Amino acid sequence: MKSDIEIARSAKLLPIKAVAKETGIEEDELELYGKYKAKLSDELMERIRGNKDGKLVLVTAVNPTPAGEGKTTTTIGIGQAFKRLNKKAVIALREPSLGPCFGMKGGAAGGGMSQVVPMEDLNLHFTGDFHAITTANNLCAAMLDNHIEQGNELRIDLRQIVIKRCLDLNDRVLRNVIVGLGDKSDGFTREDHFTITVASEVMAVFCLAEDMKDLKKRLSRMIVAYDLDGNPVTAKDIGAVGAMAALLKDAVKPNIVQTLENTPALVHGGPFANIAHGCNSVIATKTALKLADYCITEAGFGADLGAEKFFDIKCVQAGLKPDAAVLVATVRALKYNGGVKKENLNEENIEALKAGSGNLVRHIQNLKKYGIPVVVALNAFYSDTEKETGTVESIVRENGCEFALSRAWEKGGEGAEEVAKKLIEVLDKNEGCFRPLYDEDIKITEKIETISKQIYGADGVDYSKKALKQIKRLEELGFGKYPVCMAKTQYSFSDDPALLGSPEGFNISVRDVYVSNGAGFIVVLTGDIMTMPGLPKHPAALDIDVDDEGLIQGLF
């Protein structure tokens, strides 16, 4: 079979104007970025404001493994299948980060016959949203340093500057840096830090904002430092909000593209789920709900991270009520969780499959705690045997879930029809009643422990002295009602990436806690999680090139 990029190039794309027209969007409500991508105008948002909301479906997955799970591929396939079944659906996805594209994971446009296109545009600069977010963040940081240089009227404590500069690449040497070296006019010498753009608070704010007014309100609340008395200093205090908003004015409008089968997809925003809240923008999700009968969206990494944050942060803040969840798994991933090495995953191994299925079962149990129906989609690989597929189906049904086989990678929408039909059947029953995992009024430590015990399966939580001090301070400052955003490895329910399957008998280690006041949540750093990834031994960038005909090669 052709590579993803070859399939994407051979696709028969419709002008984005035609795709939008089928969704009820007029040409003058688009801001075109070439022939195949566009932004949705403010006028469209205003026009559809009174439309009835469609059904909201979250696609999530088991914990990621080197074997691959295909969550985005399945999401896109389901959207394409809805179209084949004459159902009006819009897909809502995150924009890919350049960090994984040039690092280890690759892009985020799906794969095989279930892709969002134009694939190269999407995986690289797209419409420039991430550049705008990066620049807005770094402008704020520069204005803070300039305020200090020009006399420090706000009495900012140089030891308590909390905003970090960012860039949308993996660059380990920028995690901890010294700035201000040189002459007196070059600023004060101090330790500083970088995060990847998708872990920045500006990205979180961008994706949780309802509109430009709300975006500015959230930007103004961002804490950039503390003064010598320990009081917060915000972006508003240093006068940065207006200029930041100007940089984000166009970026805040959702992007519309299409799948290989011309299903509309709104691709907008892109926070990581292991170190941020991992969901596409509220604006795009709410727009999709107004434009279609079904919005198919996803949240990053496994359900212990992306789905939990989707439900407990995004849905609670935005007033969204999801109607169902699709949990993606593969035979290969479950065998890997059962102890099979990557090179042996093509061999039938029922015992390892059963052992690794504990990961799937725990995710099923967790999702049910939110009160909505769950459909397990088994993403099929050519090496799967009937006995393996039947084993997974039996385990799923024993745990009170609907099961469907997906061949979205191989057959696109046709291959995902079984999942789509099962989903429609579940949605038509309308038996779901969404409820978040915890109440906002409980203490920060209780929220952390609720997630750690009920979602991760931990026995308890171990806090560093620094973390406990920070929690006490944040509650004294009035941030105690915020939800918590757990920053944890994506590879395990625990904070140890080596503990696969459904580990037991462990504690979650919390080393640091801080507030993202603009985003409206408390960030909890666990284990060895980092907010600036590094490149692997063989980064994907080594294999990316432009050939003599000007075509990009090596993207995946």
Any low-confidence stretches, pLDDT <50, length ≥5?
Answer: none
* C-alpha termini separation: 14 Å
Rg over CA atoms, rounded to whole Å, is: 23 Å
**Can you count the helices?**
19
Basic shape? globular
User: Structural class, from secondary structure content?
Assistant: alpha/beta
Number of strands: 24
Let me know the largest β-sheet: 12 strands, mixed
Strand content: 15-25%
Describe this structure in words.
- The two termini are 14 Å apart.
- The protein is of the alpha/beta class and 556 residues long.
- It contains 19 helices and 24 strands.
- The model has no long low-confidence stretch (mean pLDDT 95).
- The protein is globular.
- Strands 1, 2, 3, 4, 5, 6, 13, 14, 15, 16, 17 and 18 form a 12-stranded mixed β-sheet that branches. Strands 19-21-22-20 form a 4-stranded mixed β-sheet.
- Strand 17, helix 15 and strand 18 form a beta-alpha-beta unit.
Structure characteristics:
556 residues, alpha/beta, 4-stranded mixed sheet, 24 strands
Summarize it.
By secondary structure, the protein is an alpha/beta fold.
Topology (elements, then pairings):
Blueprint: H1 4-10, H2 16-22, E1 30-32, E2 38-40, H3 42-47, E3 55-61, H4 71-84, E4 89-93, H5 98-102, E5 110-111, E6 114-117, H6 119-123, H7 129-149, E7 156-161, E8 165-167, E9 176-179, E10 190-196, H8 201-208, H9 212-221, E11 223-227, E12 232-234, H10 241-248, E13 255-259, E14 264-267, H11 282-291, E15 294-298, H12 303-318, E16 324-329, H13 331-337, H14 350-368, E17 374-379, H15 386-398, E18 402-406, H16 408-411, H17 417-429, H18 444-454, E19 460-463, H19 465-476, E20 484-487, E21 507-516, E22 521-526, E23 545-546, E24 552-553
Parallel strand pairs: 3-15, 3-16, 4-14, 4-15, 8-10, 16-17, 17-18, 19-21, 20-22
Antiparallel strand pairs: 1-2, 2-13, 5-6, 6-13, 7-11, 9-10, 11-12, 13-14, 21-22, 23-24
Helix pairs in contact: 4-17, 7-8, 7-10, 9-10, 13-14, 14-15
